[in-house]
Amino acid sequence: MQKLSKKTYYGLAAGILLAAVAAGIMVKGHSKSAVVMEEVALVRTAVVGAAVDAQNYIYSGEVKGRFESQLSFQVGGKIVKRHVQLGSVVNAGDVLMEIDAKDVKQTVNSNAAQVYSAESQVKLAESNLNRYQKLYEGGAISAAQLDQYKSAYDVAVASLRQASAQYAQGSNQLDYSVLYADKAGVISSITAEAGQVVAAGQSVVTIVQDGEREVEISVPENRIDEFRNMGQLNVSFWALPAVSVDAAVREIAPMADAVSRTYKVRVSLLNPPQEVKLGMTSTVTAANGGNRQAAVYIPLTAIYQNGDVPGVWVLHNESVTLRHIKIGAFGDGKVQVLEGLQNGDVIVTAGVHKLKEGQKVRISGDTL
């Protein structure tokens, strides 16, 4: 009886083992069949439609004055006094800086002495001429002798004129040692300090004259032609969030900057409020209103890059087809499509990198 039980036990164990192997084969076969089944991807789509190309371009700038004067001394020397600070309001004729004029004063004194000496020579020559004129009238001397004294008198007069001119020039140099404001305005820049030796013509102070205000911006060379016919400009200010001012292009630099390769553009503010101050950071918004065309824009997420050629997946009869496109400008998470799409095309905007040609898809939701 015990021997029969062992046979039964081994038989049951063999049956269980065979059943386990059979179950594993069935599971494996079922897994293979699941892999073979075509995967239906879940995607998001959008309907292509042309819109008016009203793309705006934004440039950062700084508020400046319409007229700026860079002032300098007409003589060189050491600056001994500075009477203004950055932001000082000045009137025409106010003293801005002074340079050491000791050497100039000595030159003026020397010229004054030469004038005094020349005046004495003129008086002596005039006395001699009058004396010898009487002698000539009395027949005591010849005409040739009289001509000599006339010539001496003319030379003395010429010497006096020369000395007087040198004195006037020295006086001007002395006056040039003081720098005056030529117009009323605000001091926007100071490039020299007391104790510094400056050369004649070296800019030391910049005055922004009272009057018009404008914004200077830098425009890349690929946008400069659009700015020549720019229709609408709007200027906002970082320090004045509630202020917005209309503006117009006044001046475009004829050459690009050597370092940044951008063009300086001056934008005139039309009726700016009093709150707009010099040096404020501003934002110029340029609407490309002069060249508004119908254009197609799609989300950047719809682009499927296949090598160097961009494309999009176009949905038709619940399957997708890759279509190559030609793209244009980028901006605000969108890209302009120049060729390859038409109005009404349904494109995939999410999940593009898990698709293949002819694959069936399910739509999670349409976005226009």
TrEMBL record:
> Which segments constitute the Multidrug resistance protein MdtA-like barrel-sandwich hybrid domain?
73-208
YknX-like C-terminal permuted SH3-like domain residues are 296-362
What protein family does this chain belong to? Answer: Belongs to the membrane fusion protein (MFP) (TC 8.A.1) family.
CusB-like beta-barrel domain boundaries: 215-287
The protein's matches in PANTHER family, at most eight in alphabetical order, are given as: HLYD FAMILY OF SECRETION PROTEINS (PTHR30469:SF15), MULTIDRUG RESISTANCE PROTEIN MDTA (PTHR30469)
Protein name (database record): Efflux RND transporter periplasmic adaptor subunit
Q: Which InterPro entries match?
A: Beta-barrel_RND_2, MdtA-like_BSH, MdtA-like_HH, RND_pump_MFP, YknX-like_C
- Signal sequence interval, chain numbering: none
Highest taxon above the source species: Bacteria
Q: Where is the Multidrug resistance protein MdtA-like alpha-helical hairpin domain?
A: 109-177
Q: What is the lineage of its organism?
A: Bacteria, Bacillati, Bacillota, Negativicutes, Selenomonadales
The membrane spanning regions, by residue number, are none
Q: Which Pfam families match?
A: Beta-barrel_RND_2 (PF25954), BSH_RND (PF25917), HH_MFP_RND (PF25876), YknX_C (PF25989)
